[in-house]
Amino acid sequence: METVLIIGASRLGASIASYCSQTGINAIIVDKDKESFKKVDPSFSGFFVEGNATSLPLLKRAGLEKAKEVNVVTGDDNTNIFLACLIERFSKVPYINVRLTDPQKEVLLPHERVRLISPSSLAFDLYKNLREKER
Amino acid sequence: MRIIISGGDKQADFVIREFKKTGNTLLVINGDEKEANYLSNQNEIDVQLSDPSKVFSYREASIEGFDLIISLLEKDEDNFVACSIAKKIFGVKKAICTVQNPDNVQLFEAMGIDSPISASYLLAERIKGESNIDSLIKTLSLEHDKIAITEIRIKKDYAIAGKVLKDISFPQACNVCCIYRDPTVIIPRGTTQILEDDTLVFASSTIDQDEILTFVKRKGA
What's the confidence (pLDDT) of residue B115? Predict the structure, then answer.
């Protein structure tokens, strides 16, 4: 079964977790705050790992090496950039998805295997679409 | 040199003072108004009040061509990002930062930060250098690590326990300076007998230290 690692039980992290459960993907969520696991849908069938994801040994314990995809979606851009660089440098995970709020920091992400999820540009695209419809 | 100093209060204050003495151009960025005012008043220097882990802060300050960034922010990830912004976006030549997690020293280095500094990492390295990891042995280095003073507690099963000093053929580079036998300190002579639980203090050159340890800790027949 495909394994997906989710770092940060943010709203986005929780949504990805539910999506994985529904589509039969084995998901593991890592967050430093146990409380935040409450955000995740009760039907979630994956695993929770409590701890600081900026530690490489913890990520490995959580299953970094067997994951096909890692989603770096904590609420902090700097943490996400650091994690993306760390995972790109020290693992062979094929897909690393990273959420960044500040578009100016995109250039700090590694190019290989890293894909950007940018809420601000997504929201702006939506705005443009709405605007088109007004015409 | 042209140097950026990002974040930090007491540490930044010290760094600013040191670098100001030697006539460097300093750019100080701090995101906390109180700290910024403090640094500015203490050192009679302009402090830019803006978030040191944001790209626009550095753009505003035009840091292109600077030689060094010293990032003293609280969180390791923030320091990583501040240094990366300076190096990758603005071509600053060298990045130094503090890290809380000693494990990050090697990771930061592998990811392009020239000198991550961790107090606990330095402490551990220093301790490793100062002493052998053996609860019975204490050592002290003198003259920039050229002379080693080694303290060894004698156990019953050591070959030299119970022997008289002149009968022991110590390695050449080794000299017993004194013996501590609770509660007295004995200045050894050839006729002094070594007893169990004595603490022997050796002076030697640092390179011979291991040989002495191996010799003294040999088990008796």
Answer: 93
